């Protein structure tokens, strides 16, 4: 899962929020689009911890570690299939 040293190599990065005055005028996403390269790096941070609290904490029951690995490997089509399964 991910890159074994990814957690040490890449810092945590969050998508930027759109400014509130702009968001008040539409119903679009709160966050700016996250660049694919940034998503790949964040997917590399998955530590394969053995007890994935991220998976347990997901209200949708998504397999977060598996999804992170697919994003890290730039396999977006399978990643979206996993989310929609």
TrEMBL record:
Domain Dihydroprymidine dehydrogenase as annotated: residue spans: 24-83
One Gene Ontology term of the molecular function aspect: iron-sulfur cluster binding
- Known SUPFAM superfamilies for this protein? alpha-helical ferredoxin
The family database entries (InterPro entries) matched by this protein are listed as:
DPD_II, Glutamate_Synthase, Helical_ferredxn
Q: What is this protein called?
A: Glutamate synthase subunit beta
Q: Which organism is it from?
A: mine drainage metagenome
